[in-house]
User: Fold these one by one.
Assistant:
Number 1:
Amino acid sequence: MMGRSVLWTRIRLVQLFASAMAVIVTLFTFGAVAYAMATTASSVIKAAKKAVAGQAGVHVVLVAKNSSSSDIEKIVGDVGRTGGTEEISEDKATLTVEVTSSYAYVSGNSSGLTTIFGLSSADAKKVGRRWVSWKAGSSQYSQIKSDTTVPSVAALLPDAKGTKLSTEITNGSTFYVLKWTTAATSSTPAVSNSFTISGGAAMLPVKEFATDSTGTKVTTSFSSWGEQVAVTVPTLTSTVAYSKITG
């Protein structure tokens, strides 16, 4: 009888252990499902915007390919809280943008100043190899600054309405993928967007893919989050105020 009792006790312990593990697995699964249900496009977008706002800077690379030509536009930038830099190229046209808390500067070759920045050939000739400058407080300065500072990254995130959320796991890491479509207007084609965000403690943008209805594709990648962005200020003698070029 003693041997049977011992055996019976062991069997009961195994059964109880198995039952306990089943309960734990069930609770864990339920918790995971509840967490997944709580993670929505809205919550991911909100968390990403908050995470971006807390960053000192980020390295951004944008590559745009037009389906109707072999031209490739590339923008390499380092954007910070109060300023940043951009190097823009399209075929042989090049343009450099520097922004500080006091001034915005633009310099480039002749085709860069005309085809990328929009100056007339005559005004581009006046600029030559100098930097065009805008003082803080002007509308032009505000526009240039808005493209070269951290808030410009948060502005890329979509509205929650109409945005679909999915989850991907790559090399053991979780990523959230936001997908949405921007409707066509009288002047712009429809655009399909896919935005990947890290699922780590800091939910920061990783990459974005956009394709419009004409076949143009744009890829944007984000790296070096938290970097301190240093801007080299042009010398006074190498700059010319925009008002003196167009005035």
Number 2:
Amino acid sequence: MMNSLSRRTFIKTTGLAASLGATNLLANPAPPPLTKRVLFVFIPGGALPGHWNAKGCDGNFTFGKMSQPLEPIKQHLVFLNNLTMTAAGHGMSFNALGGSYGPNRATLDVQLGAQLSQYNPFKNITLNAGAEFDISVSKTLEGAQMALSDPFKAYNILFGDLPERQKGILDEGFTGNYAEVRNNFDTLSRLHSELAVLALARDKTNVVSLMLGSDQADFVVPVGDNTWPYHSIISARPQNEFVAARAYLTQKFTYLVQLLEATKDTYGVSLLNGTLVVMVTDMGDGTSHGVDNAPFLLAGAKKYLRGNRLVDASGFSHLDLFDTVSNLVAVPTALYGKGPIGAILK
């Protein structure tokens, strides 16, 4: 199994065109078409606004302690301060992606997948790291959409028929046993992140939702010698432990964006060119379960989203952000909020 150092080196030094079998079949190729993809990343428990919100202005802003691990991908970010949620708290996982608990509204990943993934094997895929017994964040009109928790089983579902000659460095991690890693959040989150990237790179789908932990926050974040569930860190432990644990989860998001940038699609183009990455959550300040200052942000989509920006989202909700996402990928969906956030589209 490839160790973490090797994977980090890989991200910094190479793409995946050769190792994924992605070849350019045209002798004198025209510019490849832009495939728009969306990757939602759910991180539960919100954040502490004083340690999350950025300070400054476009092109010249600094992060808080919880968001500091985003620094290496700052040029790819649209960071949002002061965004609110329509509702917040544990047990509301569908709301993180705009779905209602009645039969009248599916989550945004499901709606986008129906249009962006018309010609892919899967309309959308939901992956679940460290949240095996929790409800999915994805929902159709009929009810919750199953999330894939076992990364090895998920790999076989997605790539079980892939010839050995087309496999690459990221495939090497999927030869283990779920029982051996099911309580190892660090390994699970890495494997699911890599599954998400491979699914997009190999055109299995154009929409993925990745849960980094459960809505109930009952997983253990491996920071220092911590043995407390994330929920306990948020609600009952010293604040500095929450800061460190949320920063750890933020770093997982950064790794994912870096991996997208290093990985080529079937046209030999970086996945980050067309993939819009959306960080979502289930609340604002995790210690109070409130709706204010919810840590949502956008990353990637280099061809149609200008990065290195700090946007004041006062007066807007996460549902307005989802209208913005639909606008960015040019998919007309039923309005979740009151329309796109104009400052993001500039």
